[in-house]
Write a structure and sequence with these properties.
Layout: E1 7-10, H1 16-27, H2 37-44, E2 56-60, E3 63-77, E4 82-93, H3 102-116, E5 121-125, E6 137-138, E7 144-145, E8 155-159, E9 170-173, H4 184-191, H5 204-212
Parallel strand pairs: 4-5, 7-9
Antiparallel strand pairs: 1-2, 2-3, 3-4, 3-9, 5-8, 6-8
Helix pairs in contact: 1-2
The structure holds coenzyme A (COA).
């Protein structure tokens, strides 16, 4: 990959099904047998927290090989002061194109746009391996937690503007845009619109379980 062999652009309506299929290909069997991310992005576009200006795709070889979406979420400090932050995800790159820098290019491009739009913080759950090189740190380092002082190991925070979180304790209230994925019947029905795929176990599901059940003390 070099800077001339791809373009990054805003997602448009004609991309919707290709982007949904890309999510399905990238996330299939990764965290659980099958996946729900294709349904998640389909539904997220109508959610009040969705930010269409930041939904971007990366194209090469005449097709979309990566995409990213963002939502508005909330931080609240101990005095009740609130701050809108970005929740990033899903982010994915087509298998076969992964680990070549496309994900990095998409994130760096959209982080710049987000900063221009006035956002100063991005938060998401994820495997730290994918994000620490992009400047993300553990939520513990920024004193960002869930109510009850829970600091999940997979809760990762990036300041787009240094000092934006200024050391005070923040409670994180993520958008509920992913709540649609709890409706497993709706996910199954939506999945029927795509070519058949076999659900199976793979070791990454155990890795996901470990990351998603770990907290930092
Ligand atoms: C995670 C994903 C989006 C990353 O995109 P990508 O294009 O494959 O990754 P990049 O080549 O841009 O590399 C991004 C960073 O990942 C890390 N990375 C790359 N290869 C790695 C490897 N083999 N092992 C561990 N980390 C690796 C590096 O930190 C790299 O940054 P650096 O090159 O500045 O050091 C992509 O692999 C993907 O879609 N995976 C499946 C879906 C998924 O897991 N999405 C994220 C949900 S949390």
């Amino acid at each position: 990959m070099n800077n001339n062999d791809y373009i990054i652009r805003k997602e448009n309506k004609n991309d919707y099904r290709e982007v949904e299929n890309l999510n399905r290909e990238a996330f299939w069997n990764l965290s659980v047998p099958g996946c729900s991310e294709h349904y998640f992005v389909h539904m997220m576009r109508q959610h009040k927290d969705f930010i269409p200006e930041l939904a971007h795709v990366i194209e090469t070889d005449g097709k979309i090989v990566g995409c990213v979406m963002y939502c508005n979420s909330l931080l609240r400090d101990e005095q009740g002061r609130e701050k809108t932050v970005l929740t990033m995800g899903p982010l994915c790159v087509l298998p076969g194109y992964q680990r070549k820098g496309y994900g990095k290019a998409l994130l760096e491009h959209t982080f710049k746009l987000a900063l221009d739009m006035g956002y100063d913080t991005v938060i998401n759950f994820g495997n730290p391996d994918n994000y620490v090189a992009r400047g993300y740190k553990s939520c513990k380092k920024y004193n960002v937690c869930f109510e009850g002082d829970v600091f999940p190991a997979a809760l990762l925070v990036k300041e787009l503007k240094e000092g934006a979180l200024d050391g005070r304790k923040w409670f994180y209230y993520p958008s509920d845009s992913d709540a649609c994925c709890d409706d497993t019947e709706a996910v199954e029905e939506f999945d029927k619109l795509f070519p058949p795929k076999v659900k199976a176990w793979q070791p990454s599901q155990e890795e996901f379980f470990i990351h998603s059940h770990s907290v930092i003390r």
